[in-house]
Amino acid sequence: MMRSAIALAALLACGAAHAQSDAALFVRGAFNGWGTADALAPKGKGIYQADIAVAPGNHAFKLGSSDWAAEWVIDPDKSVNVAPDTAYQLERLSGPETFLFVRTSGTYRFTLDASDPAKPALKVTRLPDADRANAPDPHAGHAAVATQAWATWDGKTETVRYSTPDAQALLRQYVQSSTMSLRDPGPQHVAYAEQEGLPRARTGNLAFDALFALAGAEMRLNSVSQIKDGNYNGGNAIDCDCFSTGEKWAYVWTRDLSYAADLGLALLDPQRVRNSLDFKLSGWRAGVTPVTQIPATADGLQIVQDTGSGGSWPVSTDRLTWAFAAEETLRTLPAAERAAFASKALKALSNTLEIDRVAAFDTATGLYTGEESFLDWRDQTYAAWMPGDLASMASSKALSTNVVIFQALKLAAQLAREQRDAARAERYTRWASALKRAINKELWLADEGMYSSLTAGHLDGAPLHKFDWLGQALAIVSGVADDRQTASILARYPHGPMGAPVIWPQQIGAPVYHNRAIWPFVTAYGLRAAVQGKNAAVADAAYATLMRGAAVNLSNMENLEWLSGQPLLLDEKTPALSGPVINSRRQLWSVGGYLGMVIDNVFGVTVQDDGIALRPFVTAKLRRETFGATNEIALHDLRLHGKRIDVVLRLPPAAGGDGYHRVERILLNGKQVGDTLRTGDLQAENRIEIVLGKLVAGAQGIRRVQANPYEESSVTFGPREPVIAALTRASSGAVGLTIGANGNAAGVIYRVYRDGKLVADKLPAGAWTDDKAGVASCYAAEARFADSGNVSHHSQPRCIDAVAGAGVDIGVTDPRVTSNLTTTAPDARFSLPAIRDWGRPQDRFAVDGMRVESAGDYRVQVRYHNGANQVNLGISGGVKWLALKNGAGKVVAQGVIQLPHAPLFKGATPTVYSTPLAARLQAGSYRLEMTDFYNMSYLESNRTFTGAGGAEPANRFDIHGVRLLRVK
Fold first, then answer.
1. What is this structure's pTM?
2. Tens digits of residue pLDDT in 638-658
3. Signal peptide: which range, if any (predicted)?
């Protein structure tokens, strides 16, 4: 056995230049949260095995070391679906995931045969199923039992049973069982109990009380003393009295924590939320000297953007979701602790806001650039070409991310006022007001009655006819949307039979995850928006989604397929489209969303800066169907600032029709009060009675859609984005382009955009001529289903200056290029010469004599390749400062450019272009200088990251040249 372990260590060492001393190799995949629970154990003679319980699904997995320094894949260039009992030769390279298709739950043996070190092989075998017959009834002997029947998408039902041995107990114990085929292997029932120190519901509906207790129990399961992730600290545990993210996600992630805390957790455990928020702050590493362009405090304390697209920030800029949690925590922390946290929060918020203003603010539109918040799987919510050109994603502007920054600006302004910093408060108030105007100007689509989720990237910039429920809901609850816009959004965003999908329309050819999915935490924000807009129909849909999801799955799941509500839609015809591709029980923000639904929306208790608001939203449907057996429901033992609160809702008789029940009066300890109470109004023990009365119609607008979840129908999907197959300029000045259908069939029409503006509509695929073209323009096309009106993403833009050869294009061998690093010749991977591994703080790069022949608007880009990590991982996206100087040495344009991770293939690796520096130039000669900025690897919190940027900051890439495009 020892010799086998030594042999594996040798294989790992020769297979990865950065292999650590840890010799273990793990099977890491969607079935185990990509963690290190399943090590390949030595069995002798070069054989290693791991037996893993796997649920139905098309599961992505890899063989990898604990720190991902070593990976073994079947094909470094493409994904492979493994057939059981078949041996596949492995290569010791990084690459795409391997897939295992499983029809029914079972235990699978993963065998690595490394007996021939030159030809290691993998084989997966299903082991015989254990006999589960004659299992005892988990509800046997319980005094109170309730049953629910939940309809399925195909006309059947799933049955859920709840029971408790003592319905009169102060803290009940529950058992819950379901007939639903669960996502993960295990029993069809779960046992849990109400928790000391957490509120409990008594509503006369055992199921409702139980599901609230389930959320509280899962919150406690996510309350940990240690966290871990394979990418940090060598996969070893990190001490932190924090909230972990879920059963399969054992770390603290900024956005997950922040949305969960805002939805409900900050009220119930503010100290643990604060600990978690502190964990997501970091200053500079020792030895890092911030560049002069960053207006931050000396220690650089700021919010951490987690690993992700293209190497993290500023491709992704939603780290300011931290403000959502911070605001709720400031409201719920004891007064003695609030002041210290408020001071730290303002410092972190201010540093982050000031830095992001430099690195990610577009002065032309007044919006911030960056990926959509939480929708961070590029091939799920962006154009198919985008993973190969992440600079275009980095330069796009997202609704959700801009609303997040708007909220952060408001909180920073408030904290600055509290701390008597009037100048800073005025600055952030002004920025917030301007950002709100910009969101409404640039992203509101009047023809759709909703906000665009995002714009196209540079060289295009048009708002896309793409929509997401989180962004719409956040725009409503933040106050970005006015009453008219709120009503329109709530009535127009589509809902399937199981609830609202997180994006609309769905993406053809992509499996279920963000695409084709319900995420309960997003539904919880949709519920908040519906309550704010008094839309009972949308609120009822959200209530049903949240309750059904927790009921049939025995847990608050990460996500669900949106048309069927299943935790896994198994598509045997097209296995690659099955999903959700990963799904965790007790996902933190789903737990927070469920707790908030009960406390905030049903019972109406919302914490404010100095007290609570009491605004329950009990719809006629909720009264009839959920609370029909009683005239009074209660929430007991809610705690705020050391005070206990019982909330009792007195219900009117159940009525037919739709709407919500208006609040008639509120009593605090027997005395009538208004709907807002100051903390000082509360005693040590408090009984709040809220009497509901007349049914108010409210708004009832809701858009319903229905389709077969196994079909890519034009009813629910958008077409594929087209391509501009050719672009030419005639001697007359007219521009001709050819629209390629890219696989779209009949029934699709096309639009053309010039410089982000619509210039042609209802075109067939093929040739089109622009007789009104300018001197220099960039074009993009989009497709639209003629029947449903659903629209694609835009094509990759093409510019006349690039195809006509009129632009300035300078390779690194050009004598005008100077650098402190030497240029290397092309090799087997790169067809162009390169300045390799450029980007250390002391590195310099310049281009002299860049000649501009005529005045106009230009874009400067660096041609590069960044292979520091995969396109979906890491903290090593290139982030640099670019300055353009005229012949007199005066800076005429400067700013941050991004050089994100780019695809790395086994064969030839294509070069890509950075985000552009915009410049209005006169004719003349210019000098370009590129110097250091910073990325997330410069932060102390990432010192233990196991990939590039962990051992030392990594902000490096290969430079192949620069180009200067005229766009106007």
1. 0.93
2. 999 999 999 999 999 998 899
3. 1-19
